């Protein structure tokens, strides 16, 4: 091996790339996937509490009916919808469609807008009809 420095270029750094909506949605897809693990543990807690008897279920119901519980459920439902829409976006890409810069940016923006809109509509339905 030689001590001569190679003329190969260095790996690109984040300062070279322009931050794009598709990059943000990739990051959010990973974050929501992680958040779904935590939220699913809460769903399991609720199911185990329901199977364990009235006292255990009352405790879980009290938690989910609290402000913090409702905020967690709101965030969990948004994460679930966002992750699902991101999965559909990736499915479209897997078919070879929507790969241009303009279309992929629009799909990324639609993923965010769609997940927020669907979450609000779902929670309005829960509040108004429950």
Automatic annotation (TrEMBL):
**Keywords attached to this entry:** Heme, Iron, Membrane, Metal-binding, Transmembrane, Transmembrane helix
The record ties this protein, via SUPFAM superfamilies, to: Fumarate reductase respiratory complex transmembrane subunits
The organism's lineage is: Bacteria, Pseudomonadati, Pseudomonadota, Alphaproteobacteria, Hyphomicrobiales
Locate the transmembrane regions by residue number.
27-48, 60-81, 107-129
MF terms from GO for this chain are: electron transfer activity; metal ion binding
- Please state what the protein is called: Succinate dehydrogenase cytochrome b556 subunit
Q: Which residues form a coiled coil?
A: none
Q: Which NCBIfam families match?
A: succ_dehyd_cytB
Q: What does this protein do?
A: Membrane-anchoring subunit of succinate dehydrogenase (SDH).
- Which family is it part of? Belongs to the cytochrome b560 family.
How would you describe this protein's topology in the membrane? Answer: Multi-pass membrane protein
Spell out the subunit comment.
Part of an enzyme complex containing four subunits: a flavoprotein, an iron-sulfur protein, plus two membrane-anchoring proteins, SdhC and SdhD. The complex can form homotrimers.
- Principal place where this protein is found? membrane
Instruction: Please give the cofactor(s) recorded in the UniProt entry for this protein.
Output: heme
Instruction: Tell me the organism.
Output: Fulvimarina manganoxydans
Is Nucleus among the key words of this record? no
